[in-house]
TrEMBL record:
It comes from Pseudogulbenkiania ferrooxidans EGD-HP2. It is an enzyme of class 1 (oxidoreductase). InterPro entries: dTDP_dehydrorham_reduct, NAD(P)-bd_dom_sf, RmlD-like-bd. Its EC number is 1.1.1.133. The lineage of its organism: Bacteria, Pseudomonadati, Pseudomonadota, Betaproteobacteria, Neisseriales. Pathway: Carbohydrate biosynthesis; dTDP-L-rhamnose biosynthesis. It catalyses: dTDP-beta-L-rhamnose + NADP(+) = dTDP-4-dehydro-beta-L-rhamnose + NADPH + H(+). Belongs to the dTDP-4-dehydrorhamnose reductase family. This is dTDP-4-dehydrorhamnose reductase. Binds 1 Mg(2+) ion per monomer. The keyword Iron does not apply. PANTHER family: DTDP-4-DEHYDRORHAMNOSE REDUCTASE, METHIONINE ADENOSYLTRANSFERASE 2 SUBUNIT BETA. Catalyzes the reduction of dTDP-6-deoxy-L-lyxo-4-hexulose to yield dTDP-L-rhamnose. Keywords: NADP, Oxidoreductase.
Length: 308
């Protein structure tokens, strides 16, 4: 039986990976106490030696995008240095490394969805640290999958979707940015696609198509469009709201300044993933509907949606 190590088990993707990867082998799910990626590379490699996985799946990351602007050293330690240590260990042991990256590695310009071979140009400390992690993997570990995604959400953990549901019950007015475009990616979808890719790797390791792939649902929206769709669906499902979803105001990013620059264009072209592995990705609205239903029904691992 293959041993699969998951980092960041308490995060949105890490939580879902424990479900999706359970049928594929012996899982070793770790949190920050068990595998701290802010430690030295030597300590990280020692921790891996103790667990000796055949496959490492690394959703753990420094994701405090704004805080990274004033703490780039820590962001680099977790998102780049630690990833390099994991990659070197995986290369020595012949292990597969699955790692998650982000649309923030691009400069966010234009309107065309980003392809895997497009020039990178991160505009934030977070984006620079994630790109450095990608480069460390490509340098050290030939047997790797880098999955770039965007706007991750789920029933577990904190995210935009859950924040909007809470605010929709508390406020009669909301302003949401409408000039950043992308596709909300469900953590469950990311985990399920990861399981499908690992399943194919285990079946045909010799001919497996390693490399970098984009992973996001079809379609596109703004944060404003996302919020309106979500709260319209919540209202039609019976959730009592103070705000009328049609009254949510769209605003430019300049009206909501933050320390880190957000990409205006977070669109990801996922043709390579779909064609290489014969995968059909869903539309973004279906994932929002699924997580909303899970929250409204009170998912076993969370308290559902706070109600007034």
């Amino acid at each position: 039986m293959h041993r699969i190590l998951i980092t960041g088990k308490n995060g949105q993707v890490g939580h879902e990976l424990q479900r999706s990867l359970a049928p594929l082998g012996e899982l070793v799910a770790t949190d920050r106490q068990e595998l701290d990626l802010s430690q030295s590379g030597e300590r990280i490699e020692q921790a891996l030696d103790r667990r000796h996985p055949d496959i490492i799946v690394n959703p753990a990351a420094y994701t405090a995008v704004d805080k990274a602007e004033s703490d780039e050293e820590t962001a680099n330690a977790v998102n780049a240095d630690a990833v390099g240590a994991i990659a070197r260990w995986a290369a020595r042991r012949g292990a597969l490394l699955v790692h998650y990256s982000t649309d923030y590695v691009f400069n966010g310009d234009g309107e065309r969805p980003w392809r895997e071979d497009d020039a990178t140009g991160p505009q934030s400390a977070y984006g620079r640290s994630k790109l450095a992690g990608e480069e460390a993997i490509r340098l050290a570990a030939p047997r790797h999958l880098i999955l770039r995604t965007s706007w991750v959400f789920g029933a577990h953990g904190a995210n935009f979707l859950k924040t909007m549901l809470k605010l929709g019950q508390e406020r009669d007015a909301l302003k949401v940015v409408d000039d950043q475009i992308g596709a909300p990616a469900p953590a469950a979808l990311i985990a399920d696609i990861t399981a499908e890719l690992i399943r194919e790797y285990l079946a045909k390791p010799a001919g497996f198509a390693f490399g970098t792939y984009h992973l996001a649902p079809h379609g596109e929206t703004s944060w404003h469009g996302y919020a309106r769709y979500l709260l319209q669906r919540a209202a039609s499902s019976g959730l009592p709201l103070r705000i009328n979803p049609a009254d949510i105001q769209g605003i430019p990013s300049s009206d909501y300044p933050l320390p880190a620059k957000r990409p205006a264009n977070s669109r990801l072209c996922c043709d390579k993933l779909e064609k290489t592995f014969n995968i059909s990705l869903p539309e973004w609205k279906s994932g929002v509907d699924q997580v909303l239903a899970e929250l409204l029904n009170g998912a076993p691992d969370n308290k559902g949606i706070p109600r007034e």
